[in-house]
Amino acid sequence: MYLVVQIHLSINQSAYVSCCTNTSVNQPINQCIALYCTSVVSIGLSINQSMEITASSTIIKANEKSSMETVITHADSEQWVTLNVGGSIFTTTLLTLTVTEPESILAKMFAEEGGAGRAAWNPRKDGNGAVLIDRSGMLFECLLNYLRTGKLILSQNILMESIFVEAEFYNFQRLLEELGPIAKKIQSTGRILDLSATNKSVTLTRPDVIRALMVTPSTQELRFQGIDFEGCDLSKLDLRCVNLKFANLKRTNLTHCNLSYANLDRADLTEAVLDHAVMFGVKMPCAVMERCSMQDVNMDDPAGSRANLEGVNLRNARLDNSQLSGANFRVANLKYASMTNCELKQVSFPGANLELCNMSGSNLFEANLRGANLANTNFGHLASALHMSQTI
């Protein structure tokens, strides 16, 4: 009820107050003034209460707005985005594009201020609303899977050089840092991953080799030709079919490695340790292996391939308890070498220097020793009889 107070004063008349509500009532002035004051106070209280209610409502709405913004932000991160990369269509989330590589072009393209699925700038779109990116879709698929899983998995026929170029274009800093110095050293020639063209004064480390092994598809050949690995710990690594031709492997730890079908042609393995290594069909012609340790090595390939150690220098080397059946040691230098309790069936030693070599307890069944230097060679306690035809 809205209250209006009017005071009427007239000469020679009593003062009256017409208090107008829905009806007019005549009352003495003192009573009306009192009523007016009470009404004003009541109205003031009502105004204050109304202001408090309004303020409370404003706070509640602000909190609701903040909560809604939080929900929207989370929803935005799960917003699906469609990309057209070189004609290939990809669908993914904003979260995938922005979390793993926050400094990448993709992350900045779909930055938070761009809103749900809207780019921070206005890129071109195709007829279906997909964002157009003029790059290779095949290479982008590998990088998108990396953003999803954090792991770089290469498809067949993908060249590593192409992946590096794309990673640099999209500014994938974490990926380039993870690949480390290999990213700068790897050069691609056809389908061969080649590290031989790098600065040979640089010594690669175990993490460098592991990264190279991880990013090299099984269909490619990994080359470390002429690379310096001196003193490096490469134990228990799978180095099958790796090209280590002319590599410096002095004092390298290769224990328990799989070197099957690896190429160690003229590599320097002086004082290297290859104990318990698997070396089916390994190629090591003219390698330098003085004072190296090859105990409990297995070269006896069930598939029938033969290890080639022709002309190798194994002076003072230790090959005890090794399976060397069928290996080729033609014109090799085994002076002072220890080959006790070895399996040497059908091994070729023609022209080899076996002077003062210790072969006691070994099995030389059908081994070829023709033309070998057998001066002071120790054949004690052989597992099989040595026939004259094997030496003449």
Describe the structure.
The relative contact order is 0.05. 26% of the residues lie in helices and 10% in strands. The protein has helices at residues 29-77, 94-98, 105-109, 137-149, 160-169, 173-179, 182-185, 206-215; strands at 4-8, 16-20, 24-28, 80-85, 88-93, 131-133, 187-189, 192-194, 221-223. The strands form three sheets. Strands 1-2-3 form a three-stranded antiparallel β-sheet. It has a three-stranded mixed β-sheet with strand order 5-4-6. The longest helix is centred in the first third of the chain and has 49 residues, at 29-77. It is α/β, with parallel strands linked by helices. It contains eight helices and nine strands. Mean pLDDT is 76; it is low at 1-76, 113-119 and 186-201. Helix 4 (137-149) packs across helix 5. It is elongated.
As a percent range, the share of helical residues equals 25-40%
SSE order: EEEHEEHHEHHHHEEHE
Number of DSSP helical runs: 8
Number of strands: 9
| Spatial gap, N to C terminus | 133 Å
Gross geometry: elongated
Unreliable stretches (pLDDT < 50, length at least 5) are 1-76, 113-119, 186-201
* Strand line-up across the major sheet: 1-2-3
Q: Write down the overall mean pLDDT.
A: 76
β-strand percent reads: 5-15%
